[in-house]
Amino acid sequence: MQQHTPTRAEHHRGPIRLGERSLTVELPGGSACFHYIWLRDNSWSGEARVQQTGERKQYTAAIREDIAPLAAHFDPSEGLWIEWNDGHVATYSTAWLERHDYSEHARAARRHSPRLWDASLGSLPAFDHASVVGDTEGRLAYLDALRDYGAAIVRGVPSTDGEVERFAQSLGHVREVAFARVHDVRHDPAGYNVAHTPFELKPHTDLPSYSWPPSVQLLHFLVNQAEGGQSTLVDGWAVLEEMRQQHPEHFRVLVETPVPYQLFSETEDTQARAPMVQLDTEGRVRTFRYSNQLALPLDVPFEQVEPFYAAYRVLGSLIDSDRFKLAFKNTDGDLMTVHSHRVLHGRMPFEPGSGARHLQDVYMEWDDLMAHRRVLRGEHMPLSATAPALEATA
To answer: Rounded to whole angstroms, how far apart are CA atoms 119 and 323?
Structure first.
């Protein structure tokens, strides 16, 4: 059957322009273009959604390839109404169109830009424990700081065994890993990791030996009375941004070269091989794994070895420089949270006979912390596309 092609007059009325495969409407923030397939696929009208849950019922692959409006009109105060050529009638509120506008200016406005920092930051954002655990505003301030800086300190956390786990569970879910759910960090001559020694720990990320390393680490200082042992933190994304700007070829090598890592004990083993730097689809750094002490021998083609070491040498020098490194002494009851796909942590050497030093740490996932932030802000529930005024008058 030959498909009827609507005339321009049938296509629209009001501030709307229809093209061959997309339409343009004037939203309060400016012009926005939407593809017909995208609008039809994201309808909330009729049988497009499971009414009980709001989940999608429309099966994308079943949408006809020549999907287009038979008629459409748009009013900024009411929204967009479309009669589709497959018989479906849908409405889209202006607020919904604004939220999901995928024009470049709208996407740029929604994109979060973390606050990259170096040693000039001076100190991390710090919060009182009672405020974070007992007050929504205080908890949001802590989560906002983590989102911006990738690290924060909570002070006055009770120095009791397992408190770091209880704190983590008030925010989300503990990430189970090999070795221990709650890991004790103190001087242990029989320990399986350099963290159990009194030696310096260069800034690093934990467990790069997992294909997906834990993305959040919480370190609780139950007692920190030994001489030395200052904590060190480095914003790895800030270091990588300098690499990208000043040494683009080295940056490319870090993105492309897989590095093997291993952390093991007598009863557990973790091994993974992946580039130290992984980018998202827009080229922004999303995962940084760096642990000089856990790296295994590089296993790449012969011609890639020297370029990697040239890049690795520059990277390591920047990470260990005073320009990028914060160094400070945590006190008893401090709980340090780091986004461990971004911020590297370490410590200076300490004298184990000079006083007690005992940390406990657990791992979490960044997604869970940011989900908790959205829930507290009331931002996690989807907005229905349905425009009631148009539904009633269509």
So the answer is: 5
